[in-house]
Amino acid sequence: AQRVTQPEKLLSVFKGAPVELKCNYSYSGSPELFWYVQYSRQRLQLLLRHISRESIKGFTADLNKGETSFHLKKPFAQEEDSAMYYCALGVLSGGYQKVTFGIGTKLQVIP
Amino acid sequence: DGGITQSPKYLFRKEGQNVTLSCEQNLNHDAMYWYRQDPGQGLRLIYYSQIVNDFQKGDIAEGYSVSREKKESFPLTVTSAQKNPTAFYLCASSITVGGSGTYEQYFGPGTRLTVT
Known about the structure:
The complex is a heterodimer of chains A (111) and B (116). Helix content of chain A is 0%, strand content 49%. Chain A has strands at residues 3-5, 10-14, 19-21, 24-26, 32-38, 45-49, 60-61, 72-74, 83-93, 96-101, 105-110. In chain A, the strands form 3 sheets. In chain A, strands 2, 5, 6, 9, 10 and 11 form a 6-stranded mixed sheet that branches. A 3-stranded antiparallel sheet of chain A has the order 3-8-7, with no helix packed on it. In chain B, 0% of the residues lie in helices and 50% in strands. Chain B has no helices and 11 strands. Chains A and B meet through strand 5, strand 6, strand 9 and strand 10 of A and strand 4, strand 5, strand 9 and strand 10 of B.
């Protein structure tokens, strides 16, 4: 069975400081990893996915299969980054797409 | 916001009553999902459906039931058998393209159910 671990429920950083939200996964096949974000009073939405290899709002995430990690990073935190961040693992099982989410990390950027 | 709608936003029920949460999407997505979101537990998958008239149990399906009679609709019924029904419920949908991978999920605004 697949599992996603986000070890920190809350991460507080000062504005301008680097951010790293940790995510580790367990899955024996080829994983597809995502980061979703939920800003206050907004819907949960996709931030980025590992296949795209893109930077969104200054955030990047690299899939490290050796360490089974997909940490989310940003060099300089902004106040508007304060939100709930969920790491997610997508698998194809019997032709069905199934996505498993971590418990989420609340990022608090202190002005 | 369009795409996926959930109604109502807040729902109150007495213990022992079944209640149905609505989820509709106009994105022409094949796959639809129901999650439960509890503080400190993230999102947990209740049921998911890849096509009309077919659905699969997720990780916490006990006490819930679904139907998928139309592509755009995936209602969730919280039955009286669900021991802790008070929660925030999220519906999502995604495309399926040839079964070659997993795709971005689009979420609804959620329904907060309170059972007393």
